[in-house]
Predict the 3D structure of the following.
Amino acid sequence: MKSVEDLLKLKKEIQESIALREGGDKIKVVVGMGTCGIAAGAREVMSALLDELAKRRLTNVVVTQTGCIGLCAQEPLVDVFVPGKPRVTYGKVDAQKARQIVAQHIVNGIVINEWVVNK
């Protein structure tokens, strides 16, 4: 930090990041962060989701994490909950797929069926 402006900028970025993790009647994205998920790359998926949501300045989305979901062979797993619609679980998600999930499913409402593990 070299100035008050730098500190205020950092404060704003952190507040935006925290807002992505808080909820209400918003779209909710849950990343499986059990041991198997982390080993499969869930941290990178979480970072990509948060980064893409921040770049798009989406404030209607909450991102959280959970423990093991139970489908270890499909990790990293990402659940998308859109109010009024059934949960969609994506399997074998990487950072690039996470960004596409934001663009297609969250922004445009189009489920990417080829990556879905629950129907």
Notes: The chain has one domain: 4-115. The beta strands are 27-32, 61-66, 78-81, 88-90.
